[in-house]
Design a protein that fits this description.
about 40% helix; three-stranded antiparallel beta sheet; DNA-binding; alpha+beta; 14 helices; four-stranded mixed beta sheet; about 375 residues
Length: about 375
DNA sequence: TAGGCGTGGGC
DNA sequence: TGCCCAAGCCT
């Protein structure tokens, strides 16, 4: 370990003061969250893992109800592993980033079948599970197993960038921010508190060292005056809201398309189950056109996608076009959908591959992404409140 | 390595 | 309203 002396020499009294101050603060101000062990209790690795997956790019407030439903329905990882994947997808519906749900189920099965139901207790082992990346592996190792791991998420990037007034823009600054967190994370006999320290940094980032928001009077300010790191922070009193510096983002384009609401004589709706890879993988959607960049003219969007829209129109006619359109914003584009409604004079006629008849009453229980829930609402298929 | 991948909330 | 943000991972 040639680096140990280098690392040690980069740890100053300022670092040590910050580490101690933050751990002391956490002992008093830690948030009480459903997946956190109470003080003095042993953490539940299944709960820690499940919450960490759900919390990826998702707020605590949103996760709480999903976490409660999952742990109620599947109390142990073996229960989740034994569930049908469709049930898991349906329970996840609305939470977004559905690859997380597919990976969640795959990882549960691997833990149950290959590890006898026990999660790997170190970063390398955890990292092998699908859906567990560098952040999540470090977080679980530290929080659930008391390992000294260096945990860096978006909150911690912000706190460390401010604490050292890092001017390098993200994502280039990542390695630098990791080194700062490494230098701050408790070592030696205190190394077992790495999990507390990481959670303390996240609580700090969530509650005090908050991200900037545009207001009438410029950017909102973090709560430096009550921050345990105020005395050691390089940005305190020097416009901390300007950190971290970020590289400019690419703009979000518009896409247009058609969704087909096809109903038979018996109150069944034709839905397509999307293939596992790619956007909305494994979820149910209304068939239709692809979503193309550019022109908003409906006629420009032939039904040539893999959803069988063209076959449906040839077979059953074009129906009526609804006046209501549906708009939905994804992370990297906005889509505007025109709805065509087709009523078929038959009961459950054969459908192309990949399409299925679904009872109208069971629509709400299916794993529909939010954009398709909007379509179902606009077409009057489900209650507006569902 | 930069872009794909959801959704809800705040202002 | 439009834009930004939130406990990232994968390719």
């Amino acid at each position: 370990m040639t680096s140990s002396s280098t690392v040690s020499s980069s740890i100053t009294p300022r670092h040590q003061a910050a580490t101690t101050a933050l751990l002391d603060w956490y002992d008093v101000h830690r948030r009480d969250l459903p997946w956190r062990a109470r003080h003095g209790q042993r953490p539940n690795p299944y709960h820690v893992w499940l919450s960490e997956i759900m919390l990826q790019q998702t707020t605590v407030a949103t996760v709480k109800s999903y976490f409660a439903r999952f742990t109620e329905r599947w109390p142990e990882v073996a229960d989740l592993a034994a569930a049908d994947r469709d049930e898991v997808m349906s329970a996840w519906a609305g939470l977004g980033y559905y690859a997380r749900a597919r990976n969640l189920h795959a990882a549960a099965k691997r833990v149950a079948n290959d590890h006898g139901g026990a999660f790997p207790a170190d970063e390398d082992g955890l990292r092998q599970l699908p859906g567990v990346g560098p952040y999540t592996a470090a977080a679980i190792a530290a929080i659930a197993f008391g390992q000294r791991a260096v945990v860096v998420d978006g909150n911690i990037e912000r706190v460390t960038a401010r604490w050292d007034a890092v001017t390098t823009p993200l994502p280039t600054a990542r390695p630098e921010l990791y080194r700062i967190m490494d230098a701050l994370t408790p070592r030696g006999e205190q190394g077992s508190r790495a999990g507390d320290f990481a959670q303390a940094m996240m609580d700090l980032g969530s509650g005090l060292c908050t991200p900037p928001r545009k207001t009438k009077n410029g950017l909102s300010q973090p709560s430096c005056m009550i921050c345990p790191l105020m005395g050691t922070c390089a940005a305190s009193g020097k416009a901390p809201e300007n950190f971290p510096v970020k590289k400019a983002k690419t703009p979000r384009p518009d896409r247009h398309g058609v969704a087909l609401v096809i109903e038979d004589q018996g109150g069944h709706i034709a839905l397509e189950r999307r293939r596992d890879d790619g956007m909305l993988g494994g979820l149910y959607v209304f068939p239709g056109s692809g979503w193309a960049d550019g022109s908003p003219k409906v006629a420009d969007y032939p039904m040539t996608s893999d959803c069988g829209g063209g076959i449906m129109l040839d077979q059953f006619g074009h129906g009526e076009t609804l006046n209501t359109r549906v708009e939905h914003i994804f992370s990297h584009f906005r889509v505007i959908l025109t709805i065509q409604r087709l009523r078929i004079e038959a009961k459950k006629p054969p459908l192309p591959d990949g399409l299925h008849w679904v009872d109208r009453g069971e629509l709400a229980a299916k794993a529909l992404p939010t954009v398709m829930v909007k379509v179902a609402r606009a077409a009057g298929l489900i209650d507006p409140r569902d």
